[in-house]
Amino acid sequence: MAVFQNNYLIMRHGQSEANVAGVIVSDPAIGCERFGLTKQGSEQVISSALEHKEAGITQVICSDFQRTLQTAKLVVDTLNLPLPQPEIGLRERFFGSWEGKSDKHYQDIWEKDPRDGQPVDNEVESAAAVLQRGYKVLERLEQQHKNQVILLVSHGDMLQILRTAFVGKPPQLHRSLSHHETAEIKQLVSQGDEFPVFG
Q1: Within 10 A of 110 (CB to CB), how many other CB atoms are there?
Q2: In the 3-class helix/strand/coil scheme, how is 123-174 assigned residue by residue?
Q3: What is the pLDDT of residues 3-61, one digit of tens each?
Q4: Residues 122-136: what's their mean pLDDT?
Q5: Global pTM value
Q6: What is d(CA 95, CA 126) in angstroms, rounded to the nearest whole number?
Q7: Given Cys at both, which of 30, 35, 104, 193 links 18, Cβ 3.0 to 4.6 Å?
Q8: Does residue 13 contact residue 155 with C-beta atoms inside 8 Å?
Q9: CATH number belonging to the domain at 7-189, selected among 3.20.20.70, 3.40.50.300, 3.40.50.1220, 3.40.50.1240
């Protein structure tokens, strides 16, 4: 069985203007242009980057949403790394007709995830689809790099769902994992670990 050639860390963006406003922003047409980090969010990112200085991060790959791109740029500036590389495969989960509405509706979506598994109500991107595109990013990076420590900067649902593949859970049970806080950095997988089998 194939093994990973790189170490991967994952980071959720810092506190964003969408978080503070309490609105769902998942449409790239909006999220790539607006709703960047707050001052507190920027401070969170810098603090988190410094806490992981010894992790030996060599490069940063990020969603192209404003909040994740700003997060990634702060990380590379803080750690004196090469410019981050945007990756659309790491974008926020698309929340369909919930776009622009109160983030209280996340709970409605998450409660339906375990029951549906596949396409969800209100044109919400399924957890399975999110996992597939996140995992394809890892496959591409494995083809391009070796012996690197790569930080993936993305969004809460994408990261929670991606982690399910590495703990042996179906993607629709992503909320059973520990919550990924803003600007938090976690280990995803280590060099030499086997590729998970899912689906």
Answers
A1: 15
A2: HCCCHHHHHHHHHHHHHHHHHHCCCCEEEEEECHHHHHHHHHCCCCCCHHHH
A3: 999 999 999 999 999 999 999 999 999 999 999 999 999 999 999 999 999 999 999 99
A4: 93
A5: 0.96
A6: 9
A7: 35
A8: yes
A9: 3.40.50.1240
Q: Report pLDDT for 120.
A: 58
- DSSP lists the bridge partners of residue 60 as 151
CA dihedral angle for residue 137, residue 185, residue 112, residue 105, rounded to 10 degrees? -110
Please answer whether residues 102 and 92 qualify as being in contact, where contact means their C-beta atoms are separated by less than 8 angstroms: no
Average predicted confidence (pLDDT) for the chain: 94
